[in-house]
Design goal:
The protein is α/β, with parallel strands linked by helices and about 400 residues long. Helix content is about 45%, strand content about 15%. The strands form 2 sheets. A 6-stranded mixed beta sheet has the order 5-6-7-3-8-9, with helices on both faces. It has a 3-stranded antiparallel beta sheet with strand order 2-1-4, with helices on one face. Strand 8 and strand 9 form a beta hairpin. Helix 1 runs antiparallel to helix 2, helix 1 runs parallel beside helix 7 and helix 4 packs across helix 5. The longest helix is centred in the last third of the chain and has 43 residues. The two termini are about 45 Å apart. The mean pLDDT is about 85.
Length: about 400
């Protein structure tokens, strides 16, 4: 966690240096300055992790990498996005924002060539190498083949030991004798969702893409693998388009955002805090419009409006109460763990072997608490947009 935070800080400081004076990026830079000021610094510690990988050097990238001019895309007769005008350049790190179902995954599929334009033009630079990751791709892994066999089929010219060493950085190691890692020779049909995601990422990275298209890459991944992926993406020098519900991943790896909404794509001039405010305002407007579509103010509509507000607030209040209970339990457990880990006798006694496991569990608790506190704040901000009376 300490090393990850140091990398996060360095990435944010680099962003501030590059864009502080640029008018279109000033708000994002100011947001990162405030985030650095609020950040609680983590003291150096050591937690064993089986994951340590970086992106391989990609081939020279054309400029621009990819352009879409006045495009439209959809499924059958249904158009999902239209008037798409988009240019991707080398080194750009773009996050896609938008409500569920707005078309973010559709846009990623279009960029990945899984969907074709219904109209408009697509222009690709010579030497474009796309790396695409999405959850549905996990089903394309061959159930009867191991991680090692997948790698050999991908690159039959590579030495087996080189492939084994590479897979080891994703915790696919050995042949299953006395190891806590996933054996490199185990058939994929026996893998968990997280193991399949790790293998899919390993296969993608080996191909040296200069344009990464990532659709919810952290789903199914455990804490350590998410951290390793975040660090690797921060060092990745190619272009990237990312869809993710992981706010920390978006915040620390993306330099600009596009908003996908109402069938259109447009630059979002702001950061994730601004997007949270936009989303809350949008939800409030939708709720108000559904209650009073004709803006008729009378007793019946006022009563309906109040009932709608009560119904809108109820699940938010309930979720806040549940989060409060979870936070209380997690903080109690965190305090107990910290007290135990601060006892010098633990490190010399018979339970010294438990220290790595305890540190790992403490890191997971901290992550859970941070995510829950963020959600708690989001819920309260949404509640503020829905009057109680």
């Amino acid at each position: 966690m300490f090393e990850k935070q140091q990398r996060d800080i360095a990435h944010m400081e680099d962003y501030i240096r590059r864009f502080r004076a640029k008018a279109t990026k000033a708000r994002q830079a100011q947001s990162r300055i405030k985030a650095l000021e609020r950040m609680e610094r983590i003291a150096a510690a050591h937690v064993d992790t089986p994951f340590s990988f970086t992106f391989r050097d990609a081939p020279p990238a054309p400029d621009p990498l990819l352009q879409i001019e006045d495009g439209a895309v959809g499924y059958g007769d249904k158009t999902v996005l239209e008037r798409i005008t988009l240019t991707l350049r080398p080194g750009e790190r773009v996050g896609l924002l938008g409500r569920n179902g707005a078309g973010k995954s559709t846009l990623i599929k279009l960029l990945a060539h899984e969907l074709q334009l219904a109209s408009g033009r697509r222009l690709e630079g010579k030497g474009l190498a796309i790396g695409y990751f999405a959850q549905h791709q996990l089903e394309t892994l061959r159930a009867d083949e191991s991680a090692l066999q997948h790698m050999i089929r991908l690159d039959p010219q590579a030495r087996e030991q080189e492939l084994r060493n590479y897979l080891g950085s994703f915790d696919f190691r050995g042949d299953g004798l006395g190891s806590t890692s996933t054996p490199a020779t185990t058939p994929c049909g026996l893998f968990s969702g997280g193991e399949k995601s790790r293998l899919a990422l390993a296969l993608l990275i080996w191909q040296k893409p200069n344009l990464l298209l990532l659709d919810e890459p952290t789903n199914h991944l455990d804490l350590e693998m998410r951290h390793a992926l975040t660090l690797a993406l921060q060092d990745y020098e190619g272009a990237m388009v990312l869809v993710s519900h992981d706010r920390a991943l978006l915040r620390t790896t993306c330099d600009r955002f596009l908003l996908v909404d109402d069938g259109r794509i447009q630059p979002f001039d702001g950061d994730l805090d601004d997007y949270r405010d936009w989303l809350a305002t949008h939800r409030a407007e939708v709720a108000a419009a559904s209650v009073c579509p004709d803006q008729v103010v009378n007793k019946a509509t006022r009563k309906a409006d109040r009932q709608a507000r009560i119904l809108a607030r109820r699940p938010l209040v309930k979720e806040i109460e549940q989060i409060d209970k979870r936070l209380a339990a997690w903080n109690r457990e965190k305090n107990t763990l910290e007290a135990r880990l601060s006892d010098p006798a633990l490190y010399t006694g018979p339970q010294a072997g438990e220290v790595p496991m305890l540190n790992k569990h403490l890191a997971e608790l901290v992550q859970h608490i941070e995510e829950a506190e963020l959600r708690w704040l989001e819920l309260h901000e949404i509640l503020e947009t829905i009057p109680a009376n």
